[in-house]
Amino acid sequence: MTDRYEGSFFGRRKGKPLSPRRTDLMENLLPRLALDLSQPAPADLRDLFDAPVETVCLEVGFGGGEHLLHRARENPTVGYIGIEPFVGSMAKVVAALEEEGLGNVRLYDDDAVNVLDWLPEASLDMAYQLYPDPWPKKRHWKRRFINEQNLERYARAVKPGAEFRFASDIDTYVDWTLRHIRDHGGFRWTATRAADWKSPWANWPGTRYEGKALREGRVPRYLTFLRV
Known about the structure:
CATH architecture: 3-Layer(aba) Sandwich
Distance between the termini: 28 Å
Number of strands: 7
Largest sheet: 7 strands, mixed
């Protein structure tokens, strides 16, 4: 089976209709918060943000936004780029940013591949991919975001010595990720004991999806890799 897949790595984009307020925010506020990939990326990604930030972190597929918003609140000097194609989730985060006045978040509502290709080389201080779509049926594994090409994209954008963090509750995806990381060679798994991949990262807020996984008896794994 080849890892190459031409097409999106996510499923449906729309769910329930948005409220009038969230529809208005998506039409009027999101364009101001969204990355403009028609323009070259700034040489220094800190220039993307309204707030003065010292470092920049990427989260691919932020889902309900629980983790993205928590990190943005607790780390006002870190700029966060959040990517999520699902309209309802994006609208939730846009509404929270408007209500709380957070100036250290920028957004993108389409395929993360586009952003990874747009970012300057060695420009990210950290990257997260938390509970990506596992595509559990074997015939769909080619749609998993972690593959040789996308790891190369991460490796190009993440600074040497910076962390790439991955979480999943699907054993086959955890094994898949470890194997692809090993074969790629651009990242080193930092775990030295079981607690390193069984325990979440510091100040972990949990996510809605993680809560569902735990209720259904699935066990999350938290993998930390360093860009070498």
